[in-house]
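Bench notes, afternoon.
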Amino acid sequence: MRIPTIPPKVDAWLQKTVTQKNSDKVFDILTRVEPTDNKDRYLHWDEFRYKAHSNDFTVEEHWVGTKFARSKLLKGLPLYDKFGNPFYFGMPDCVLRMLHEIDQNASGRIRMAEPIMNVNTRDAYLINSLIEEAISSSQLEGAATTRKVAKEMIRQNRPPRDRSEQMILNNFHAMQFVQENRDERLTPPMIYELHRIVTEKTLDNPEGAGRLRTSNDIQVVDTEGNILHDPPKSVELPERLKRICDFVNNNKTTAFVHPVIKAILLHFMLAYDHPFDDGNGRTARALFYWYMAKEKYWLVEFISISQTIKKAPVRYARAFLYTETDDNDTTYFIDHQLKVILKAIEQLNSYLARKMQDLKSVAQLLERTKLAGVLNHRQLALLENALKNPNSIYHIKGHQHVHGVTYQTARTDLLELSDELNLLHKMKDGKTFLFLSPADLRQRLEVAKLRG
């Protein structure tokens, strides 16, 4: 990956121009330029230098004006880089607009889809989203298992077969840990425990799970071996981690930072400090979810930011690098992550629309048959999945896990579909039953329709 171009030094340009006694031009530049471009984008110099700007100024002059306009927005944070310099963030209009949209869509009840609001189906959609985030976050870090196999592993509650599956199962458990501890204060031991869950049975050195790194040889590199980031020294990590926890917990004693911004900065700082030998990215993203849940952004439980990041991982990496190469301005990373959150919400809405249509199609197929009004929402969801995936195998424990019901309820659901309605094929596996979706399931439903 190409390292971003370092921006021109604004102070050097100003000193040179003032020396040339060109104060009118300096005044013009410093008063006419906005913090974002004409398309409301918060661009780093790496992209900025290629875009069209005012004909009145050179690209470098326009950059000077942009930086000056941004300086009036930037606020210092009680978080520091490895050299002791503070990080900053700004709230330009583009950031404010995205925050407003997230506030509307992720923390209230506006325009929420019925499956999420319905207490009967909520758990199934929540578990599916946790699975999706676990898979995508692991794949970002190199897990090679397919989504279908990974989902079957989690839903069937079977042991992982390799390191990739172990990573995904760990991430799923981490997301569950986040849900269970949403009301707790952030502490270093909590972060250690989350990291231990994320990395269990996947580290070359198993003793590194849940422990700060002791080596200073850890570097973030790309696939070509280029060094992208050199984290702080290991001896500094305990104090740095404590400072992060203080920043997150002290809502009333420090300057106000919007909760979504704080969640994003928590993500950023864990990745920047790189406090563990491995699993830093997964831990950082899990902590983002934890803080969003803590601050009642409940819809975020149902989205996968890693799924969106995975589609453009270079943009994700550059968002970190843009901050490091431009005066510790975290607005670049904030801007990127706000777009990721909104895209993930959009994907969730599209997914829910498709699921609703699929379930509606199954319900229509069952209308005017002996099955009308007989099947519950769990059985309808299973049939919808079975129609799409002939010859799939379903387990009682998996059905129980997906829908958050008792073992007996899950068993009753599946036995009714197999023994009474002849829609699934029941098989014996040792002492347990397996249920196969037959290739002729649609025809079986049609037969049921004729009987109706």
